[in-house]
Amino acid sequence: MKLSAMRRIAAGCTRTVTLFATVATVVIVGTGTALAASGTVHTDSGEAVNVHSGPHTSDAIVGSVANGASVTISCQTYGDTVTGKYGTSDIWDKISLGYITDTYVYTGSDGLVAPLCSGTTAPVCSTSGLGDPNTCAQAVTWAKAHESTSYNASYYGMCDHVMALAYGFSASGSETAYDHWLAVPAKYKHAGETTVPAGGLAFFGGGDGHVMISIGSGKFVSTDIGGNGTLTVTTIAAIKSTWGKPYLGWTEPWFQVNH
Predict the structure, then answer these.
(1) Residue 118 lies in a domain
(2) Neighbours of 151 (CB within 10 A)
(3) Partner of 122 at 20 to 30 A CA spacing, among 116, 156, 198, 243?
(4) Can you tell me the distance from the alpha carbon of 164 to that of 256, in angstroms, rounded to the nearest whole number?
(5) 92, 197 contact by CB (below 8 A)
């Protein structure tokens, strides 16, 4: 993951707030699709980070990595959500000794920097058990069909409302995008994960927050990033760099309105 510096912004679904911008580098080792990545372990306390036999805090501790030590990440997987020096994430890094949470490893990225470990299933969007009128695929179709570079008063500052419309609701049930993020149950939330499947909702913090819908391949449809009241294609990186907003993670399309 990566470290952030203070910045002041005004953006999308939020009022003007003090947020974060990022400056980082990443070192990639290898060629082809089997790339490994390098990172550096950092803790605020200066203590070592435990290495587990699997990507869960309950898995056996099989060693530790000293603060400031460099590690080679052969692959990455998803496991327990952990909060560390570099934020909150469910990404775990496979190193020679075992698995360490990515939240204590400076890699220059909030997302994956190495291949998925064998047996890791890529995330998918699902409305199973959520009661949404529209499926993930239908929501993506709605978002694409409503893209617009012209001003629309019903889009301006209404990111969470627009996401609800994509899923067939007349309202989201949450006051703000950030309230929505906080209300989503943990089992539907993927904190810090930037690999977002089509239909997944990507959230940002700061003030009222921001949310947008993934249309796959690292692209999203978002209100206001293309100008006030617009609905255009963008990326997580563009939201962060343009508005300086901290990325929180993505969720399945859970809405307060029907829970």
Answers:
(1) no
(2) 11
(3) 243
(4) 10
(5) no
Give the span between the Cα atoms of 116 and 106, in whole angstroms.
18
Max Cα-Cα span within the chain = 57
- Indicate if 161 and 215 belong to the same structural domain: yes
Helix axes 136-145, 159-166, angle to 10 degrees: 120
d(CA 100, CA 220): 30
Q: Is 0.85 topped by the overall pTM?
A: no
Of 226, 230, 252, 215, the closest CA to residue 162 belongs to 230
| CATH number, position 142 | 3.90.1720.10
- H helices of 95-203, where? 136-145, 159-166, 177-183
Contacts of residue 176, defined as CB under 8 A and 6 or more positions apart, other chains included, come to 13, 160, 208, 209
Domain range for residue 57? Answer: 4-106
End-to-end, the C-alpha distance of the chain in Å comes to: 33
Segment 111-129, tens digit of pLDDT: 789 999 999 888 899 999 9
Instruction: Note whether 99 and 180 are same-domain residues.
Output: no
The helix (H) or strand (E) run that includes residue 214 is strand 210-216
- 32: phi then psi, degrees, rounded to nearest 5: 70, -155
Do 65 and 71 touch, CB atoms closer than 8 A?
A: yes
